[in-house]
TrEMBL record:
PANTHER family: CYTIDYLATE KINASE, CYTIDYLATE KINASE/PANTOATE-BETA-ALANINE LIGASE. The gene is cmk. GO terms for cellular component: cytosol. It is an enzyme of class 2 (transferase). This is Cytidylate kinase. It comes from Candidatus Limisoma faecipullorum.
Length: 235
């Protein structure tokens, strides 16, 4: 097999933009590891809920700071080859995708010491390159030197519809499309207006609006971009 240079690939964008599907699919095709950094913020949020650090939407940040080093997040590949999130040794992959976590995760993701701890862990995971990482601040903060940066966009309606369909498929029938749409808009606002590492497109990121693209079209677009970057690096 020909030897291709290993690179770092950063995917950023709003929630439910389809980032993870395309990032995962690209990683699989090119044999790279895939890291979903949103899952890490979600796992910390689940920890906060389970340990009563929330009073409604109020988070006890001093207590969370004291407990931060008790939170261990890892990823393990299951028998179907899918990466799953573990919180202190427990598989939480399903729970972290449900509404109780979704409705509080932006609050946790805005806490500076939480971001610092997770960013450090993410940089450690990607230091050998050959990684596809998806999140909000990957191209701007975690890996500002990534060779390939993609900023994914899609309308809030398209994204809410996707998240709603996903929840339905998982059997969560307690939420309406309107609930999901509201949650998507709220998170968009918090994620792009927070002080610490807000979501923004890196100057050198390539924008992809996939509102009207099929999965096949997205995959092809990404593979072409990856190949063209690799070819440039070889020259
Ligand atoms: O991608 P997602 O919807 O699973 O992300 C969950 C939340 O975590 C979302 O509100 C934004 C936040 N997040 C972040 O602030 N930085 C990241 N690198 C990834 C996610």
């Amino acid at each position: 097999m020909e030897n291709k240079p290993l690179i770092t690939i950063a995917f950023d964008g709003f929630s439910s933009s389809g980032k993870s599907t395309m990032a995962k699919s690209l990683a699989k095709k090119i044999g790279y590891a895939y890291i979903d950094t949103g899952a890490m913020y979600r796992a910390v949020t689940l920890y906060c809920i389970e340990n009563n650090l929330f009073d409604g939407q109020d988070l006890d940040t001093s207590e969370l700071e004291r407990q931060m080093d008790r939170i261990h997040i890892t990823f393990r590949v299951n028998s179907e080859g899918k990466s799953e999130t573990y919180l202190n040794g427990k598989n939480v992959e399903k729970e972290i995708r449900l509404m109780p976590v979704s409705s509080k995760v932006s609050i946790v993701a805005a806490v500076p010491f939480v971001r610092r701890a997770l960013v450090k862990q993410q940089q450690e995971m990607g230091k050998g390159k050959g990684i596809v990482m998806d999140g909000r601040d990957i191209g701007t903060v975690v890996f500002p030197d990534a060779e390939m940066k993609v900023y994914v966009n899609a309308s809030p309606e398209t994204r809410a519809r996707r998240r709603y369909d996903e929840l339905q498929a998982k059997g969560d029938t307690s939420v309406t499309y309107e609930d999901v749409y509201k949650n998507v808009c709220e998170r968009d606002y918090i994620d792009s207006h927070r002080e610490e590492n807000p979501l923004r497109k890196a100057d050198d990121a390539i924008e992809l609006d996939n509102s009207n693209m099929t999965i096949g079209e997205q995959d092809e677009w990404l593979l072409n971009l990856y190949e063209s970057i690799i070819n440039k690096l070889r020259k």
